[in-house]
């Protein structure tokens, strides 16, 4: 599998954000991470514009939602009529997902005595960790139906509050955020919560997307925007670390095509019945997948990546939160 892994610290130039009066102006295309107005259109999908910042390289939806509104949407689910069956299907998708990715997470948790899974979904990661003696487990999940399944499956405490509002007295050795970063609307609020919840020497495990400036609308059939609010550019992680006082201790960047054409991924069912039918057909004839991968790599490859990232806070963050509040 074509991956890159690097160990580094981050030092980049941080530009001062725009004044709040400018940033909050109706229709302003302002980057939610650095506050810059130097942004361009990347592409449009499902009637939603995705823009890219020329300073921190973040890709973000426009218009960008207020934090409170976004949390309400997540808590309610994409559709008001979502039933428990959808969460059961989501649980099966999580099981297939962690069949692929759990070893990396387990490797980073060898000495941990506590873990907080932010956006734990239906709780399969916490369930997998249940057999570790002495490991305290907790989760955060805004969707009440998913949280209910998570409590039953993992048999641990699952909170239904936004992570930015988490204020529990317990500190955690590991905070996991698997496919969650793109859904949290406030970078400042998220990293304040991370620092408040991390135990000394703790770490944050991220699984998220990164992409290059030449990414195409066709790198994914369904981008998930505006539910996914933002995606990291190839230089955004360095900017985040410099702004919030973190260092990257592990960074595995895998081309999306290596993940996309795994048979187990095509066995994960979503809400779209037509897409599910296509997945079942392709999964039934596994010889199709290598052909599709070759075609994708030749036309769209090396533009979109799925990344496993481990962050540790710098002991003295200095003015990490001196920037504007999102």
What does this structure look like?
The chain has 326 residues and is an alpha/beta fold. It has one domain (4-313): 3-Layer(aba) Sandwich (Rossmann fold), CATH 3.40.50.150. The chain is 33% helix and 24% strand. The protein contains 11 helices and 12 strands. Strands 1, 2, 3, 4, 5, 6, 7, 8, 9, 10, 11 and 12 form a 12-stranded mixed sheet that branches. Strand 5, helix 4 and strand 6 (136-140) form a beta-alpha-beta unit. The longest helix has 25 residues, at 84-108. The protein is globular, with a radius of gyration of 19 Å. Mean pLDDT is 84; it is low at 1-26, 79-85 and 316-326.
Brief synopsis:
With 326 residues, the chain is α/β, with parallel strands linked by helices. It has helices at 20-23, 67-76, 84-108, 124-128, 144-154, 187-197, 236-244, 256-260, 263-266, 273-284, 288-300, and strands at residues 4-5, 39-45, 48-53, 59-62, 114-118, 136-140, 157-159, 172-178, 198-211, 230-233, 246-255, 304-313.
């Amino acid at each position: 599998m074509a991956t890159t892994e690097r160990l580094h610290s981050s030092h980049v130039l941080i530009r001062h954000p725009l004044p709040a009066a400018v940033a909050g102006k109706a229709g302003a295309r302002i980057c939610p991470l650095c506050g810059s107005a130097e942004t361009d259109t990347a592409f449009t999908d499902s009637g939603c514009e995705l823009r890219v910042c020329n300073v921190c390289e973040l890709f973000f939806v426009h218009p960008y939602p207020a934090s409170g509104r976004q949390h309400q949407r997540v808590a309610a689910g994409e559709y008001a009529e979502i039933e428990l069956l959808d969460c059961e299907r989501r649980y099966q998708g999580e099981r297939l997902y962690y069949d692929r990715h759990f070893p990396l997470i387990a490797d980073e948790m060898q000495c941990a005595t506590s873990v907080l899974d932010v956006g734990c979904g239906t709780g399969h990661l916490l369930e997998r960790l249940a057999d570790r003696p002495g490991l305290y487990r907790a989760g955060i999940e805004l969707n009440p139906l998913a949280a209910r399944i998570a409590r039953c499956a993992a048999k641990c405490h699952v909170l239904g509050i936004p992570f930015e509002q988490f204020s529990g007295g317990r500190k955690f050795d590991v905070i996991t955020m698997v496919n969650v970063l793109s859904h949290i609307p406030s970078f400042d609020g998220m990293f304040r919560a991370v620092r408040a919840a991390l135990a000394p020497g703790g770490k944050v495990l991220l699984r998220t997307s990164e992409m290059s400036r030449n990414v195409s609308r066709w790198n994914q059939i369904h981008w998930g925007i505006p539910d996914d609010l933002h995606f990291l550019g190839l230089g955004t992680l360095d900017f985040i670390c410099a702004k919030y006082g973190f260092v990257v201790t592990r960074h595995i960047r895998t081309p999306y095509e290596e993940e996309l054409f795994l048979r187990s991924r095509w066995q994960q069912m979503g809400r779209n019945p037509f897409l599910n039918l296509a997945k079942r057909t392709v999964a039934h004839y596994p010889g199709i997948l290598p052909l599709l991968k070759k075609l994708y790599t030749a036309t769209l490859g090396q533009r979109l990546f799925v990344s496993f990232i481990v962050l540790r806070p710098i002991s003295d963050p200095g003015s990490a939160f001196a920037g504007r509040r999102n």
